[in-house]
Structures are given as C-alpha cells and as structure tokens.
Amino acid sequence: MADVSHRPGDISGHPDVSEMRDRYARVMETRGVAAVEELVILAGIYAAISGWTVHFSAAKPTLALSNLVVGIALAVLGLCMSMAPERSQDLNFVVLLLGAWLIVSPWVVARSAGTGAILSNVITGACVCLFALVAGGILMSRGRRTPDTRR
Fold first, then answer.
1. In angstroms, rounded to a whole number, what is the distance separating the alpha carbons of residues 121 and 93?
2. Domain total in the chain
3. What whole-number distance in Å separates Cα of residue 76 and Cα of residue 95?
4. Tens digit of pLDDT for each residue in 57-110?
5. Percent of the chain whose pLDDT exceeds 70
6. Domain contains 149
C-alpha cells in the first residue's frame, strides 16, 4: 500500500517548487491591485443604486438609468479584474472612461440635474477614476520591476 500520509517539512524537493514560488510572488505583487478593484466594485454598486438613494430617480429617470447601467458595468468589471488582477491592465482604461462618464453624465444626460445628483455623480466618478489610476500605477510599477517573461 502506498504511503499517502502528510509529513511536515519543506518542499524543496518538489519538482514544481520554482514554478509555485513564481506564481506565489506574482499573486502577492498584484494583491494591492485586487484591493483597489474591490473598491471599484463598491463604487459601481453605489453608482447603480444612487438614483434611489439620492432620490433623483423620479425627477431624472434617464440619469438614474445611466447610473444603473454604468454602475452594473463597473461592478462586473471590478469583479473580473479582482479575480485576475495580472490581466486587468487593459480594463483599467475602460474603468477610467466609465468614471469620467459618471462625472459628466449629469450635464449630458439630464441637462438640469439637482445638486445631490451632480455631487453624487462627480464624487463617485472621481473615486472611480482615482481607483483606476492607482491600479494602473501599481500594475505599471510591477511591470517595470519584473520583465515580461511570457513571450
């Protein structure tokens, strides 16, 4: 019968030890990015429900619908990016554009939006843009430290 008991000790003799160390190092390097992307998820959820929490959904239904769609898109993008942060550099630009849209949408979608709707959208959009820039900066600094070996 084969001995399948677990023995304590190091795994230096394991044939895949270098690959496991490299993968663990990559995961630890992108941990900060995943945390920032989780903030994108929260901002997306807030943007989606902001029309009802700030009470402008009845007065400006087009703005509430725009926020709902953009908020859902941000939450889904944030979820996807937090699950695979090493592949999320290209999607940060999309998140940045959606944040910019949140900032300008009160004037584009609803020409005379109220103060609450404007403040909600501008603050949420600025936070989303900041999150995208921070995540992009973390990924770019990681890319400078370690050359891309996938090629």
1. 19
2. 1
3. 11
4. 999 999 999 999 999 999 999 998 888 766 777 788 999 999 999 999 999 998
5. 77
6. no
